[in-house]
Amino acid sequence: MKNYFITATDTDAGKTFVACALTQAFVNLNKKVAVYKPISAGCQQVNGLLINNDAKLLSEFANCDQNIREINPIAFKEPIAPHIAAARVNRELCLNEIEQGFDNVLQLKADINLTEGAGGWRLPLNTFSVKSLSIKARVTKPIFLSDFAVNTKQDIILVVNMKLGCLNHALLTYQTIIADGLNCIGWVANSASKNLMSNLDDNIESLEQLLPIPKLAQLNYYSDTQTSVHSKICTAAHTFDLTPLLA
User: Fold this and answer.
1) 109: how many CB neighbours lie within 10 A of its CB?
2) Which residues, in sequence order, are bridge partners of residue 157?
3) Closest CA to 73 of 127, 130, 35
4) Which among 72, 84, 172, 220 has most CB atoms closer than 10 A?
5) CA-to-CA distance for 244 and 247, rounded, in angstroms?
6) Can you spell out the DSSP letters for 36-49?
7) At 163, is the pLDDT very low, low, confident or very high (cuts 50, 70, 90)?
8) Bridge partners of 39?
9) What does the subunit section of this Swiss-Prot or TrEMBL entry state (predicted)?
10) Cα 152 from chain centroid (whole Å)
11) DSSP letter string over 106-159?
12) Rounded to whole angstroms, how far apart are CA atoms 75 and 51?
């Protein structure tokens, strides 16, 4: 059993697309793959449940018969920072709940467990106060979603959003992951925007030299509006080098 946590240099870097493509790549190898997205913000109410589109997309590629709440146990309606969304509904985010959800995933005995993070590596789960709500939280120490990855000792896959500033963001994120005592096992160059980065190839070459980990894939922006997201993900799945992940 292998456990991978997918993080990124920033939000909207394409973590879900990468997670789905990786899931499909493993499924293509006849692997049993379970997915986990512990926290989402930005959901629609469907039959009494808050459904996040990214979590739903993950559910359509995994092959362990998970329901949406098993995949995404903590969901908020507003597309804002999760700790602020939680404060607005008077809810406390805690590591125990997130880790329990992960334990439930492990019970499925999949070959591969893929967890998709939220935002970047240091996503806060609590705060000392939310001034706009006049709420004072009883917090003595900030906690982050990365603490969950550390506690569960998952290997990390870093999605680099290929845009201006990505070299700094990628290196700082990688160094923080290593400082946290985890193994960052590979990275993905993802062109998440239709606005192609200037000197893209040169920047990717720089990252290949600066990051001492293998590049698992280079994903281009799929601009064809006539092609479904599922088809784009299946196409991307064939571009991954899974060798470092199966070693």
Assistant:
1) 11
2) 6, 186
3) 35
4) 72
5) 5
6) E--EEE--EEETTE
7) very high
8) 74
9) Homodimer.
10) 15
11) HTT--SEEEEE-SSSTT-BS--SEEGGGTEE---SS--BHHHHHHHTT-EEEEE
12) 7
Q: Is 117 marked as a binding-site residue?
A: yes
How would residue 126 be classed by pLDDT, with cut points 50, 70 and 90?
Answer: confident
147 carries a ligand binding annotation: no
Q: What are phi and psi of 55, to 5 degrees?
A: -65, -40
pTM more than 0.90 = yes
Structure tokens at 206: 């720089």
Question: What's the pLDDT at 128?
Answer: 56
DSSP tag of 92: -
Q: What is the phi/psi pair of residue 97, to 5°?
A: -65, -40
Supply the residues annotated as catalytic: 37
Mean pLDDT confidence for 165-185: 98
Determine the Cα–Cα distance for residues 112 and 74; give it in Å rounded to an integer. 22
Tell whether residue 119 is among the known ligand binding residues.
Answer: yes
Domains of the chain by range and CATH? 2-246 (3.40.50.300)
The DSSP bridge pattern shows strands 129-130 and 74-76 to be: unpaired
